[in-house]
Amino acid sequence: MHTHDPALTELVLDQVRGRLQREGALLNHPGQPDKLAHTLTGLIGADGNDPADVMRLYTDHLAPTAIACDSPRFLSFIPAAPTQAAVLFDMLVSCSSIQGVSWMLAAGPVAAENQVLQLLADLAGMPDTAGGCFVSGGSAGNLSALVTARDTARQQRGFGAHSPVRIALSDQAHSSIINTLRIIGVEPLLVPTRDHRLTGADLRVALQADADPSNVIAVVATAGTTNAGIIDDLATIAEAAREFGLWFHIDGAYGGAGLLAPSVRDRYRGIEHADSLVVDPHKWLFAPLDCAALLYRDPALAKAAHAQDASYLDVLQTDGESEWNPSDYAYHLSRRARGLPLWFSLAVHGTGAYTDAIERALSLSRQSAELIRTAPHVELIREPDLSVVLFRRPGWSTSDYQAWSNRLLADQTAFVAPTGWNGETVCRFAFLHPATSLDMVREILDTMV
C-alpha cells in the first residue's frame, strides 16, 4: 500500500493532464442521490479494486456531478479560477506531506507563506509588524479573528473570562459572521444601513441609541459583500471604532483582492486601520481551494488567544519572532501549507499579471452593466462596485428565475443562480474568471427575452 506504483502514478497524472488541458471546463450537472448511491455500493470493503476500475468509476460517474466552479461560465456565488501554476504546485504540496503547523517542522514553507502574507499586508497598508497565517476559508478566518477580538477586549477591559460581550455588524455581513458569533458565545449588535453600505455614522447612531454600549467590543466591516460586491465605508468606520475603542475587523474574503486593482483601490481607503483582515486567495487571487489569508495588526494578541499549550508541543515553541508558528494565530493546530500554491503562482507570474486579471473582471462588470442598462427586457439594479452585477427580469416570479437557471445549466450555457435583493428574487452575475467574455454575457441575456 505504501510502495511506489508507477502505473498508479501515471493513471492519476493522465487524468490531471486531461483536466488541465480542458479549455473552458465543462460545467457538469448536479448528481442524483439514488444513482450515486448505487454507483458506490460495495466499492469499499476488505479487498481492494483495480485502480483503473476505480478511476473509471470516478471519471464516468462522480466527476461529472461536480459543478466546475473554475469554468468561465460559472457565474454564481463566488467562482474560482486557479492558475495552472497554483494547481500544479498544490499537487506537489500534497505529495510532500508538509505539516505546516510550525517553524520547526516546515521552516521553508512557512517563510514562503509569510512572504505572501507580508505582500497582502503591504497592499492593505498595514504595519510591517502585521502577520498571521493561512486558514481554510473566510469562515475560519473570521472565527479566528473574532475570537482574538473577544479575548483581547475581555482582558484589556478587565471583564471576566465569560463576561457577555457584543460585536457590531451590518445586515449585509457574511453569513459566517453570524455563525461565528453563535459559536463563540457573542451577541450581535445589528447596525441598520442605508443602501446596504455600513458607514461610521451608522455605527455611531447604533451605539449612541443602545441602552448599554459598554459591552460592544468590536465592529465587522466588509470589503466586498458577497451578494452585491459593496465595500463599506472603511475610513469612517475606522474613525468610529477608534472613538469607541472597538476592535476593527474587515472581511475582505471576496473583495480584498481588489487592492491589486488601481481602478478601485481608492474605495478601500481605511483598510489600513484594520486590527484583523481576511482575504480569500481561492476566490479572486486565483489559488486552489481551500486558502484564506488571515492578518493581524498585532499578531501577539492572536497568539495570546490561540496558542495551544501541551507538553508534547513544547518542542515546537520558539522565542524568536522570526521563527513563526502558524498554528499560534488561528483556532487550528494541524494544517497543510495551503499558502504555497499562491506563493508559487505569484513568483512565477508576478503581481502585474494578477492586477491585469482582476481589472479584466472589473471591466467586464462595467461592460455588462451597460449592456443590461440598454437592453429592453432586463433592468440594472445598481451600479457594480466590484465584479458583481445585480439585475432583474421584469415580470418574472421566483419560479421563473429558478426554471431559467436550471435550463442554463442543463444546456451548459452557464451557471447563474438567482439571489434575493430587498425581498425580491433577482439575477446576479459574479465575474472572476479572466476568460469570461462579454459575448458569453450577451448569450445569457438573450435567453431571457
Can you lay out the helices and strands and say which pair or pack?
Elements: H1 6-20, H2 33-40, H3 51-62, H4 84-96, H5 103-124, E1 131-135, H6 138-156, E2 166-170, H7 175-184, E3 187-191, H8 200-209, E4 216-222, H9 234-244, E5 247-251, E6 276-279, H10 281-284, E7 292-296, H11 299-306, H12 340-349, H13 351-374, E8 379-380, E9 388-392, H14 398-410, E10 419-421, E11 424-430, H15 438-446
Parallel strand pairs: 2-3, 2-4, 4-5, 5-6
Antiparallel strand pairs: 1-7, 6-7, 8-9, 9-11, 10-11
Helix pairs in contact: 1-3, 4-12, 5-12, 6-7, 6-11, 8-9, 13-15
Please report the total strand number as a whole number.
Answer: 11
Strands in their spatial order, largest beta sheet: 1-7-6-5-4-2-3
User: What portion of residues belong to β-strands?
Assistant: 5-15%
Computed CA radius of gyration, to the nearest angstrom: 23 Å
How can the largest sheet be summarized?
A: 7 strands, mixed
